[in-house]
Design goal:
7-stranded mixed beta sheet; 6-stranded mixed beta sheet; alpha/beta; globular; 2 domains; Aldehyde Dehydrogenase, Chain A, domain 1; 37% helix; Aldehyde Dehydrogenase, Chain A, domain 2
Length: 508
Amino acid sequence: MAANPQVVTGSAPTVKLLINGQFVESKAKAWRDVVNPATQEVIARVPMCGADEVDLAVKAAAEAFKTWKHTPIGARARIMLKLQELIRRDMKKLAAILTAEQGKTLPDAEGDIFRGLEVVEHACSIGTLSLGEFAEQVANGVDTYFIRQPIGVCAGITPFNFPAMIPLWMFPMAIVTGNTFVLKPSEQDPMTPMALAALAIEAGVPPGVLNIVHGGKESVDAICTHPTIQAVSFVGSCHVGEHVYKLSSEHGKRAQCMMGAKNHAVIMPDANKEQSLNALVGAGFGAAGQRCMATSVAVMVGEASEWIPDIVAKAKTLKVNAGTEKGADLGPVISRQAREKIESLIAQGVKEGAKLDLDGRNPKIPGYENGNFIAPTVFSGVKPEHEVYKTEIFGPVLVIVSVPTLDDAIALINKNPYGNGTGIFTQSGAAARKFQNEIDVGQVGINVPIPVPVPYFSFTGSRGSKLGDLGPYGKQVIQFYTQVKTVTARWFDDATTSPGIHTTISLK
């Protein structure tokens, strides 16, 4: 087992850096508390690294790349096989760490880890995924083929809401394709990624192949501008994502940025009522709404608007509590600042005239009076100009818009600047087909509330939710983390007659 990625100093442990295979204490001057969002207990201190410590991580990754890029593809795959085994072994332990620092319920934490585990399992297929192509005899005695090669040191910047899944979207696929990696996880919940890193080392990832630094804007900017880093992958808010994409691109790097969302679910009058509303409420309030693929807007078409009271009734049945408590459906939001922002947007919605059918502000949670809790909140009568419709609230707030027809629903969604995910609930194949063809959103669900594709495919958000051509995981990420080299070859033997000198470009 790798060394402990934390060291106790005083009452709270400090989160270490991972540099060249060693968990080392940061020399950062600034530190930030990692706070349990259900109790406000300080459970760790995380360093806010500067450019110097980012540079140490990058240098370690660059040195490791010299040998790692030549590691046989089967050896890389076997490390991924071992890593998935270790993640399964430690699933409960990882979930406990995740819940303590992020707040989501233990079952949801296990789901977070499992969706990342699926990507690790997919990485085990690297032998097939990385195949090139070969064309024999493209000209007289000439063959052409292409090979995929790693691009070098890559980096990932990940958000607080999925501290297991999203790092696992990134570093396994990057390193299994022969690259080395520098990860900068969210400073709000860094302990889960560090625990995953310890498992990666136990699985056999060599020193320097995976490195981790922490921090805020200074470390992010150092990653985006470092001349050795070849590619940057980001998941997070639009504001930061746009900055990362612009800065990385200006410095000659590949960049993929998965950003904000305002995901709509269209409820048709012919939908299976019970199944559709259960799916809507679960997708709207699960993880306290802190998912970039959460369903935050319900679009009720025609007579489906009559089901709004049923949505409210179902939302009232959800139990809000600390993520460690049995039976909890949703835990706290990540921080006091997040709670205050969500509450201010709820107040703004009331001020602008939306109907507050269910007010989740200031719930009383016995034993957790200091927690960052907001209960399920429902607005109806929402208009596109309302702030609760325009803004990604990132909390347990469902806004409901009523429209007369499916055409109106499609027009509403296509006018929204975000394009992450959407869904339709219907029993009509014609309506579903029309929706999937006419909607301008990257990921579409048909009677599926959160249409995140399995790792054999790629995450395909679009428009204001994504910058960069290629998405994380799946086939697209193989293209992102490799470069294609074409080789045109002709071999001569002693019996070959020289054709003489040619000054044309023909290979005949």
